Amino acid sequence: MALPQREFPNPPPAPIQMARRRPIPWFSGAVIGVSAARFLATSLVGSERWSLYGPAVQAGEWWRLLAYAVEHGGVLHIVMNMSVVYTLGFGLERLLGTWRFAVISLVGCLGSAAFALWFNFDTPTVGASGMIISWAGAMLPIANRATRQSLLIWLVQIAVISFLPFVSWAGHLGGLVFGLPCGLALRAGPRAFPYLAPILVFVAAAAAVAVAAGHPMR
């Protein structure tokens, strides 16, 4: 007597492993692209109209509060800054997402400008280093112990460099000071950051505008 055949379901197909596409760091790439284009244009024209210069900002050129970050003073200056944008900025933007990274960059840029204007109102300031240091400041509250130690060592090196001639220690300090609250906002969670981001941007912008507008005219 033949036994009835049992029906077994067909085995499931083997899972197809697909490589996850890494997010494109649009903002970091734009910083490098605009900085390089601006450096080339500045080299050909021979002017630094985008520098952060207190009297010019006070006279109504408020765009300098942001534009100075993509203006650089020489080949070594731009190479050093853009190398950090590539090594630190690309990875952090992929981790956080472009819009969060852009918010931190905006806050850091404005905060750095506020400090630079407060301490060196009459001295032209250029470069993305203040914004870059704000990224490190934002990473400190959310990084693990090993990463935090590496960041602190790097920041100590930056502190030493900041006191060299023609380096804006105030701009560097401002980037760090305004980057830290961004990190605390990230640590508060993904739901809290969208509500805290406008406050951070407003405070940084208000600080920069208040310093520029409130400085006694000469």
Overall description:
The chain has 9 helices and no strands. 66% of the residues lie in helices and 0% in strands. The protein has helices spanning 26-45, 54-58, 64-67, 75-96, 98-119, 129-139, 145-162, 169-187, 193-214. It has a single domain (26-214), classed as Rhomboid-like (Rhomboid-like fold, Up-down Bundle). Helix 5 (98-119) packs across helix 6, helix 5 (98-119) packs parallel to helix 9 (193-214) and helix 8 packs antiparallel against helix 9. With 218 residues, it is mainly α. The protein starts with 25 loop residues before the first helix and ends with a helix. Residues 1-9 have low confidence and may be disordered. The protein is globular and about 45 Å long. The longest helix is centred in the middle third of the chain and has 22 residues, at 75-96.
